[in-house]
Amino acid sequence: MKRRTRQGLVAIAVIALIGVAGWVFLTERPIAVPVVTIDRDVPVRVYGLGTVEARIVSRIGFEVGAALTGLEVDGGDAVARGQILARLHAAEQEARVARAAASAEAADATLGRTRANVVRARAVLAQREATNTRQQALAVRNTISAQRAEEAQRDVDVAAAELAVAESDIAVALAQRADAEAALRYEQALLDHHVLRAPFDAIIVDRHVEAGTVVRAGEPIFTLMDPTTVWTLAYVDEARAGAIALGQSAEVRLRSLPHEVFSGTVARIGIESDRVNEERRVWIACYRCPPQVYLGEQAEVRITVALLTEAFLVPEIAVSGFDGHQGRVWVVRDGKLTKVSAVFGHRTEDARLQILNGLAEGDQVVSAPVKGLSEGRMARVLGGGAS
User: Fold this and answer.
1) Which chain regions cross the lipid bilayer (predicted)?
2) Cα(232)–Cα(142) distance, rounded to whole angstroms?
3) What is the DSSP letter of 229?
4) DSSP 358-370
5) pLDDT for 291-308, tens place per residue?
6) Residue 97: in which H helix or E strand, if any?
């Protein structure tokens, strides 16, 4: 019985010893860890999702209301500045223009008559002045009576007054003609409003009505786009948008052309972010644009905000407690694991963080979370690196 008890105790001791040895082997043996290496010429890109837009998009219509008699263009057509796009029924306005033109002609005739009256009044005045001169000479020699001399002078005064009236009539006639001409120009302008012309070289995006429709003043007839102002509106996460600046290069991929890359630059950065989605609006102007543009098409944008000539990059999954600026990483220091705080800079497109400082000379940063990492444990690196 005692022998069996002794054998049982020995077995338990052996099992315990094996367990302790296994625990020591699993927890104290050097653990193999991957480490990061220095990367060179690494572009830092910021990703944004957006749509194709145009800076100049106009919804145009008539300044007056009437029935549409004709539409000259359709969606997708290219038009030149001043080209006629549509017409309104204009018979009533044409009649108003004709009446205004007749009034202008009548004003011209009145002006001509008043000028003729001035010529006649000047001739009458000259004649009576000559007669008065003779009469006054005869009166001095007592050849005629003083009454006749006075009548001659009175005739001169009356002729001078009539000339003044005739000259003032010219001013009135000139004002009447100017008023008639202004009225004619006004009616002609209203008639011109019955024709819709392209305000700039454009592409017809959409046609909103058809011929025969009675439209109101200001109602949209066409939507126009200036093809030279095409750009991409991208929405970028605020956490990544801080490094974006005007003039930075960008790449745009369209959903309909996923295998092509179109180049551009940052042309505008919105000064107001979306308060709900916490995104910033960035506009990319293309200098190599697609041959055919479709407004509203989804686009992927990658903006190059920096080029790291030499950088120490650690995957974000290997950083704990990262707050956008600082975090903690495992490093191999003198063959043992230790956890240190580090300050980070740029974040690459593949979710790696640039370490700015926090490492000691010779530290090697663990590039992936490995099971069994603990403070002070011996470690064996799988890849060489430098701080």
Assistant:
1) 7-26
2) 105
3) G
4) -PPTT-EEB-S--
5) 888 999 999 999 999 999
6) helix 91-140
